[in-house]
Write a structure and sequence with these properties.
The complex is a heterodimer of chains A (430) and B (258). Chain A contains 16 helices and 2 strands. Chain A has 430 residues and is mostly helical. A two-stranded antiparallel ribbon of chain A has the order 1-2. In chain A, helix 2 (13-33) runs antiparallel to helix 3. Chain B has one domain (2-90, 165-257): Rossmann fold (3-Layer(aba) Sandwich). Chain B has 11 helices and 10 strands. The longest helix of chain B has 21 residues, at 119-139. At the A-B interface, helix 9, helix 10, helix 11 and helix 16 of A face helix 2, helix 3, helix 4, helix 5 and helix 7 of B. Chain B: Keywords: ATP-binding, Nucleotide-binding, Transport.
Amino acid sequence: MIKTWFEKFADNTTGQIIFFAAYVVLTTLGLFLLSDSVTAFLILLLSLLILYYLKLNIKIKWALGLLIIAVLVPFAASQGSSYQSFMDVGTLVLIYVAMSLGLNIVVGFAGLLDLGFIAFFAVGAYTYAIFGSTQANHFMPFGHYPLPGDTFWLFIPIGAIIAAIFGILLGIPVLRVKGDYLAIVTLGFGEIIRIVLNNMNKPINITNGPMGIPSIEPPRLFGIAIQNASQFYYIALVIFLFAIYIATRLEHSKLGRAWKAVRDNEIAAQAMGIPLVKTKLAAFAIGASFSGMMGSVFAAKQMYIDASSFTYLESTIVLVMVILGGMGSIPGVILGAAVVIILNNQVLTDISNTLTQLSASGVISVPDALSPAKMQRFIFGILLVVFALYRTKGLIPHKNRVFNVSKLKREAAAEKNKYKDDPEVEGSES
Amino acid sequence: MNILEIKNLTKKFGGLTATSDISMSVEKNSITAVIGPNGAGKTTFFNMITAVYKPTSGDILLNGKSLVGLKPHQVCHFGITRTFQNIRLFSEQTVLENVLVGMHQRLKSHWVGTLLHLPAITREEEQAKVEAYKILEYVGLEDFVNESAGNLPYGAQRRLEIARAIASQPKILLLDEPAAGMNPKETKSLTDLIHDMRTRLNVTIILIEHDMKLVMEISDYIYVLDHGELIASGKPDDIRNNKRVIEAYLGKEASSLG
């Protein structure tokens, strides 16, 4: 009964659009009126997931999705006092989504387990931080620093390029090892980068060591300084869209197929003419560049960075996003990153705050140590175990591209075919 | 005219000599079989031609050019591809994508062009898909286009390996036990396919095979290895009656009985 109704619904495009429009309007209004409600915010975001599962034209889906994240979410959230905190979470989600899309290229497509991925984020962040603050005066023989905020836009591609170079530098020695050994070496690399950044204050002060780099210039656009989370949200959004574009375009290209071939069987891939080293390095470099771009944004947004933001735990969290979402699956990875960040920064903190309030007013007493915000790692641990046991392929498992067989057949029949005899002498092959 | 010349090829793994001093010459557009008991060094021999292993000494010449020292993917660019004894498909990818990977070195698209959405690259991709479909039709896998390669039945997986290999338009195709595990009917259609590939695709075929019926039926020339050494070579009829070959396969007593 329910199933037939559901199938009917899946065929009914107008019905879907009406339903979806109603949902979006209601939830937008809901958040607009209950301005500080985290639940309303989440229900509005859920519309994106619903949109993903609707059977609509892909272009309509993209247009609707963009409308929601670029217009409706910021608009609906703008009323309450939590506006900036909502947008802050939104920005973080976008930053981490782009990073996990990058890691997905390395781990999901090319099958190279990288446990030190945050290093590239750090490289991108430090690149802007050093030149966007007075820090560069310590070692640069020329120029006056900080560079003005208008140069920030240049640092997005620069961050990408420098991270890509580091990706290649990591790749060259690391590609001699495989599997578990690769994981250990990348873990080491991640830690080396962090420790080096933490200690590069002598003999030449490049990173200001454990003191970190303070007062990083805010980006400027047409003379306006960008300082609020609601403004950074749009910068992150553009890079996020760029990252999705690159990842989806490459997935079904010659390079994407080469990555997956190397992942599935290295020896066969080589025998088919795929250069192993070049292909793997491309994965490292392109994956790292996503992180590098977002690193610059992160540094500008935080206005202060030190090496403690780039610990091994951060690498793990990005990896968790990829695994939770579904390795090799672009929509999965996006969902995975969103779930982890929202759970971490909004849901758990929100529950903790409610509990603290309740215990302060004496309704219940929850010891501070049991506050959900402090059990973050515990909760992720449980989640991972559950996923490893019951949903090994992630929230939205990777799906292979489906080719249109009848179209291929038609085109193959229309063209000259050297694999077939002329129709008159048909039938020598099986 | 000889397309492939192998000169005194030797491979040692530490103290163990896997193949020793093998020389052979393969005529263009012929079907050559390499046979021998298990452990004779046949697959090692293939692995040296495709640069998976570097020979300890000796030389491999394709149309007079040495292949020794190249990387495996470069050997493919020179026009030699292979199938594998233990099937090595890209099992997570679809059947059509496997064939597309086989075309890798023929496609010119650069990833930067892919990102820029250049029309030439879109066109190339479309043509590649159609050609991949033609190849699948040719080997009889057109019903499995969107199936994951790992889910195919065994015989179909062997055919897909051949499809993937011919997608690179090789000059020489190395088949490592193509009929292993096939039933007589499948073997028969494989034999037909190999015959057809030679004439239609103008490819030179070298195969390792244990199915003697198949070997005797399709080979122009046979090389026999035993314990890493070349013990006999000749036309199928010569090999059938060669004393050393019978010894190698069945033992000395059998040959004296015969």
